[in-house]
Design brief:
Length: about 260
């Protein structure tokens, strides 16, 4: 990433170096602050510094409070198909998401975008998700796909299965396109299930895969590795997990959230 300058006001001259803050200075400062600053304070901190655009608009809305009960919160279940698992070198190929309001899916609030990569799609990933180079060439650019995603996430909690992948790819994309990081509250259906396991019993490989957990909760089997289908799958799994654990009392958002 090239070093870009952000001054405290538009009127600062280029020679006024003591007021210039490079992206690298910002990232270094933020990397320290995030360990000491609550999520909502970090949102306000980033809102004050992010340039105008979709990411700053996303930061204008307060995050749902961790004290909220799970049934009063809005969520967005999200899934990416990518060329690999490393956000620093791999690319997003498709984005799927669906809205959730409380303990209900809002299927009318679903979107699915194919994203045009910069490089060629590796054969090793193409055989998994079925997205080939000719199909990807007709897709939208990442800079076109991010704004509707950020708008849909505004004021909501991200939901994903093994959410670290989606979170890190989204963060990397925002840094690349907008020059600032992505943060937000996250619920991870993989982590929710892992917390319930007996640590004294070895976990069989594949136990926590999305399809296997859906089967455990009596949910139908869907075709995997389509971003929208996987987003819906994760949303339904979360509702089943909440229903199984809640009994007569809804868990708080804090009980569901993970730290990123």
């Amino acid at each position: 990433m090239r070093s870009r300058s952000y001054g405290p006001c538009n009127g600062c001259s280029r020679s006024d170096s003591k007021h210039k803050v490079t992206v690298f200075d910002f990232v270094a400062k933020y990397s320290v602050l995030k360990f000491f600053m609550p999520l909502e304070k970090r949102r306000r901190w980033l809102l004050d510094r992010a340039p105008k655009g979709p990411l700053r608009d996303y930061y204008k809305a307060p995050f749902p409070t961790p004290r909220s009960t799970s049934g009063t919160v809005d969520y967005l279940a999200l899934d990416f198909e990518t060329t690999g698992l490393n956000p620093n070198k791999d690319e997003i190929l498709s984005i799927g998401f669906v809205g959730m309001r409380g303990h209900a899916l809002k299927l009318s609030e679903n979107r699915h975008y194919l994203v045009r990569p910069v490089g060629a799609i590796p054969e090793s990933s193409a055989v998994i998700h079925g997205i080939l180079d000719d199909k990807a060439r007709a897709a939208v650019g990442l800079d076109e796909a991010l704004p509707p995603l950020l708008q849909a996430l505004t004021g909501r909690v991200m939901v994903a299965h093994y959410a670290r992948i989606e979170y890190l790819f989204l963060d990397h994309a925002c840094r690349q396109i907008y020059g600032f990081p992505f943060i937000g509250p996250v619920v991870d259906t993989f982590e929710l299930e892992r917390r319930c396991l007996d640590t004294n019993i070895p976990v069989k490989p594949g136990t926590l895969r999305l399809a296997n957990l859906r089967e455990r909760y009596g949910l139908p089997r869907y075709r995997a590795h389509n971003a929208l289908v996987d987003a819906i799958s994760a949303a339904e799994l979360l509702l089943a997990q909440i229903a199984y654990r809640a009994g007569k009392q809804n868990p708080s958002l804090k009980e569901l959230m993970v730290s990123m």
